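User: Here's a protein and a ligand (zinc ion). What would the complex look like?
Assistant: Let me lay out the input and then the predicted complex.
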Amino acid sequence: MSSTTERYCRACGESVAPDTDVCPHCGVGTRTTDVGTPMAYCRDCGEEIRSAAEICPHCGVRQQPAPASFGSVESDLESLFRRNRGVVAAVASFFFPGLGQLLNREVVKGLLVFVGFVAASFSIVFGVGLILAPAVFVYGVYDAYRTGKRLETAAEGGRPHA
Ligand SMILES: [Zn+2]
Ligand SMILES: [Zn+2]
């Protein structure tokens, strides 16, 4: 799915670049939860803008103080995760088989890895699990890393087509 490289503004619905903080179309922060915000007027140019707009899309004047540092810490973590998906997913799968696949949005594969690991662990009593369980475990970590790496590259190289 290509939806990871494209995002849409929650306030106006226009598509925005994945790394933009403020929607260039309506001036509302792209991480806002304030959907369907009422209209207000720019305090500088007087144009009608959304009341949640951080920056007037008409004249570029900032309307509200920059969001508290909490917001930027969150986005730092987000971008850190985006840039290191492979490692994060691999570590997640290391501690909990299948979790890395979930982080990579591969829910079905994550469940399969988890169920496969549990089943393989039980089969240790029959001997085969001694090979099977580590194999599933290593596959889970390796696959999480590989898929995460692929998503990293996709997020870096993929710009939305306007
Ligand atoms: Zn917008
Ligand atoms: Zn303005």
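Summary: The two ends are 18 Å apart (CA to CA).
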